[in-house]
Every structure is written in structure tokens, then in C-alpha cells.
Request: fold
Amino acid sequence: MFFAIPWPGKLVEELHRATEPIREAHLPIRWIPAQNIHLTLRYLGSQPTAEVDAWVSRAQDALAALPPVEVDLTALAWFPSPRRARMLAAMVAATPSLHAISERLEHLARAAGLQAETRPFRPHLTVARMRRPAAMDWPVHTIPVAQHLITHEIMLVRSELRPEGAKYEDVAAISLSAADPSPS
Reply:
């Protein structure tokens, strides 16, 4: 399970069009299905279904006072680096509001007994994955992908790993205002 900002279909379509030159290059990557494109804010690992309401309540309490968050895509990049790429990512500007959400969710996860995230928060949308890390010299940074999104909610998402790729299910929407969460 994880907290995420889903990426709207119209923007995913724009991203798909922008990455067409990479798709035509037939690189050894597996493209992420459009419905799975999102910005992960905090991974929670496997959580019992009985705990979902508690996670929603905790997140609503932690995030209720926050204003809507602005999210800006800045560039495509081989992640974590071109020398040892594991994925193609659309990088996101690390704005103060995005960091505030990430920090509150990290605090929430630690308070619930989860281990602290050891990696720094590097916001991105995973666009494609590699089967194994590889050196990639295709100049993805030259492709413009500027996009802007203002979101008033984040999602709690359940993931199921399958051989053909992950299947995601939205569990609940968490409002970034004082409104009640809406189950999906």
C-alpha cells in the first residue's frame, strides 16, 4: 500500500506523446500502463485490510490543514542515473508543499511503527522500467515534458504485484482540506 498523487489521464496522454521518440527507439524497457502513472509520496508496504480506515484517518488528520499542492514535471531522466538506470522517470520539482506532504506522511508512517525511509525524497513519475539496471545513453533530457497539476487530494492505493506488472486499486481519497475522506 502507498500514498500517491494520481496523474490525470489527459496529462498521461501528453506524456505518452512526448515519449514517442523513445518508444520508437525500441529500448529494452517495459512501459508503465497509463492507469498506473502516479507520484508516490510514501510506501507503506503490505498492510492488513482491517488497517485501511486507521491509515485514512491518520492521513486525514495529518494533511487536513495543508493547502492544495502544485506539482510540476520538469524533465525526463534515467533514474537513479544514466550509468545504472532502473527506470525512465518524469522528474517533479521538489516544491515546499510537496515536501510538506512527504514529511507529514513520513512522520505518520514512523508513528505507526514503520521503519524510516532511508532514501531522500526524489519526486518522480515512473514512466518505464528496466528488467535489470543498465547504462542508458539515449538523451531523454532533450524531450520537453513540462506539465503543471494542482491537486486537492492524495490517494491511498493498494498494490498487487503480478508477473505482467503491478495492479493498483484506489482505496481512499485523502483531502488536503478539512473535508471528509471519500472512499473509492
Notes: The chain has four helices and ten strands. The longest helix spans residues 96-111. Strands lie at 2-6, 29-31, 38-43, 69-79, 85-92, 124-134, 147-151, 153-160, 167-175, 182-183. The longest strand covers residues 69-79.
